[in-house]
Amino acid sequence: MKNIISLSGGKDSSALLLLMLEKNEPIHSVIWFDTGWEFPEMVEHIDKLEKYTGIKFVKLKSPKTFDYLLAQHSFIPRNKKFKKGNGYGWPSMIRRWCTRIKIDTIEKYHKTQSNFTPCIGFAADEAKRVPINLKKKWPARYPLIEYDISEAEALQFCYDKGFDWGGLYKLFGRISCFCCPLQRIGELRKLRKHKSELWQRMLEMDKSIQVNRGFKGYKTVHDLDGKFAEEDRQLKLNFKMTPAQVLQLQILHTSEDYSKNMEYRL
């Protein structure tokens, strides 16, 4: 049986690859899907991991770039409540077109293979994520669960091997697509503060969208940017406020974030 590893490049799938090699498990191939929306540090990590392991990764892409699909692709939506036009717009919980394309592309590769087992990087403390589906085309393995490796242990294992993603995990809890609308709003705040060039790219992407511009409960990314800018302005005024006023402002921001984004939490 051939083991085919699905590599996102995050801590869990990276640890999965490194551990399977360490345990001398046979690996047929390593698949990585390049969305074009990765952190630059993630692309560097993939290159470093490829050189370290000596395995030439199977690097997959969508036939049309995600930027094109976001803002230019002509389509007629199946659900009539969505507008037809150019571009799918920002993904959402009920319109995860990006995930579907990624899955379809990986499955297309799977169909070229025979007698194989997909290996997925769910950690031991994520066992509840394992789908219960006995009718799956390709029953998968979850080696980190088999090895009883937690998320924290997976990250430390990668650090011990010299992989640090340029410090991304010091800032963010998860490091998938930098522009993902499904990440927590606190992650987006940090993106704007610490990765301003990527935030600026998101604003440019937002301007290019003609339909479905809604982003995480806000009309546009520009609206969210305005909210963050106002928060920054208020913080600068805090030294003029009493402790009670500062606390009241913090409570207001927290409750607003919760009400707007509860349904979008991962």
Summarize this structure briefly.
With 266 residues, the protein is α/β, with parallel strands linked by helices. It has helices at residues 11-22, 40-53, 66-71, 97-110, 143-147, 151-160, 168-171, 185-194, 196-208, 221-237, 243-261, and strands at 2-7, 29-33, 58-60, 74-75, 85-86, 116-119. It has eleven helices and six strands.
Structure description:
The chain has a single domain (2-264), classed as Rossmann fold (3-Layer(aba) Sandwich), CATH 3.40.50.620. 47% of the residues lie in helices and 8% in strands. It has 11 helices and 6 strands. The strands form 2 sheets. The chain has a 4-stranded parallel sheet, sandwiched between helices. It has a two-stranded antiparallel ribbon with strand order 4-5. Strand 2 (29-33), helix 2 (40-53) and strand 3 (58-60) form a beta-alpha-beta unit. The longest helix is centred in the C-terminal third of the chain and has 19 residues, at 243-261. The chain is globular and about 65 Å long. The chain starts with a strand and ends in a 5-residue tail after the last helix.
Descriptive tags:
Rossmann fold, disordered C terminus, 266 residues, 11 helices, two-stranded antiparallel sheet, globular
Q: What is the residue-mean pLDDT, rounded to a whole number? A: 88
Rg calculated over all Cα atoms: 21 Å
State the name of the first-level CATH class: Alpha Beta
Query: What is the β-strand count?
Result: 6
Strand order of the largest sheet: 3-2-1-6
